[in-house]
Write a structure and sequence with these properties.
Layout: E1 26-31, E2 34-39, E3 48-51, H1 52-63
Antiparallel strand pairs: 1-2, 2-3
Amino acid sequence: MPPSVPPTLGELSWRVARHCDAGNCVRVAPSGNMIVVGDSKNPEGPTLAYDRAEWKTFVEGIRQGDFDDL
């Protein structure tokens, strides 16, 4: 089996929040067993990637209000 090549940023299925204001949003996309995070204002800019367990922990923290003071 040939090695898999990771998709380019433009090939990912990016999502933003429903209430994204004029494109000034964080965007996320699945890529294999990772979740990629980027800036919608800079589509070809830097990204961060987290495994699904890390992403799940982060989202649970948001839902529990862990970041409400920021």
